[in-house]
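Consider the tokenized backbone below.
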């Protein structure tokens, strides 16, 4: 196993991590921005008002995109485990 292989595996893992995290992070960030604008306009500064909509949005995104996320992770792990003999030999 060369250092180039290790760097390639690490790069693929980080790319996959970003690709899988983006839908959830993007939606939660958008909902947080909308709630913050609402709080600034109405001058209601309640902590649960910021937390609950983000939690609901994250659950909705996980229910919609979750199967894709899981299958992508399983495919990556399967490919990585199957490539171990080739890397060692």
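A designed sequence for it:
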């Amino acid at each position: 196993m060369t250092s180039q292989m290790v760097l390639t595996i690490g790069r693929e893992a980080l790319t996959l991590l970003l690709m899988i995290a983006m839908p959830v992070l993007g939606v939660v960030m958008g909902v947080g921005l909308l709630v913050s604008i609402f709080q600034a306009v109405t001058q209601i500064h309640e902590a649960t008002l910021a937390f609950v909509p983000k939690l609901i949005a994250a659950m909705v995104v996980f229910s919609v995109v979750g199967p894709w996320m899981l299958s992508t992770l399983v495919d990556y792990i399967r490919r990585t485990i199957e490539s171990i003999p080739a890397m060692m030999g």
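The mean pLDDT is 92.
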